[in-house]
Amino acid sequence: MIESARELIDGAERVVVLTGAGISAESGVPTFRGSGGLWKSYRAEDLATPEAFRRDARLVWEWYGWRREVVRACAPNAAHAALAQYAASHPQSLIATQNVDGLHRAAGTPQTSLVELHGALFRVRCTRCAWRSEHTGTIDATSSETLSKCEECGALARPDIVWFGESLEPANIERAFAEASTADVCLVVGTSGVVQPAASMAAVTRRAGGAVIEVNPDETPITSIATVSIRGTAVETVPAILGVG
Questions:
Q1: What span, in angstroms and rounded, lies between the C-alpha atoms of 239 and 80?
Q2: CATH code assigned at 172
Q3: What's this model's pTM, rounded to 2 decimal places?
Q4: Domain boundary at 108, 134, 161, which?
Q5: Structural domain for 17, as ranges
Q6: pLDDT digits (tens, 9 = 90+) for 224-237
Q7: Which residues are catalytic?
């Protein structure tokens, strides 16, 4: 299977990659959702919403501060590194990630080859104006007054993350789907294939005549349309598929 996937990659001029939680799980990043995602008795679905932020911004920021410290202790793995190396040598490629942990950037993925569909944990944006900024420091959520503020208008800042009930930024999803529609290969790594609209990228490539390579320990809805489906982890397989590392 890996040999077949490698042949598809080697014969492709344009490759689009979609990554999900599975690739970062191997770096120790928890999903923060489901049965293992409780924090002080709160679920992610209770906190990662615009309503929760309006109700108690301090509590939401406290949760994100904790998440940052958990992710800060994690490092990019061999799959992140292989994808970064491939993107650097193939500037026409695109990596679209559903992850907000920043590990693709930390691995050295060129910014021009990366779309963070769901936002970034270490970035903030204003709740009033268009300002956004990198923010890698510690979150001080001891009171409402100590929370991060916009550097341009002074309004409260929020995590630059797409929350439940919010739409993805049109420019990001449009770019991802445009690349998927012209790609020779769509490589899907570590995603459940159920979170829309990103999960449809593979189908777009397939309908346009391209091939789909899936890497996942488990079967997903993408398996049925995959040209090659590899039951394995990202670290085990992605470097070999890409021929780098």
A1: 9
A2: 3.40.50.1220
A3: 0.92
A4: 161
A5: 2-29+75-118+167-242
A6: 999 999 999 999 99
A7: 118
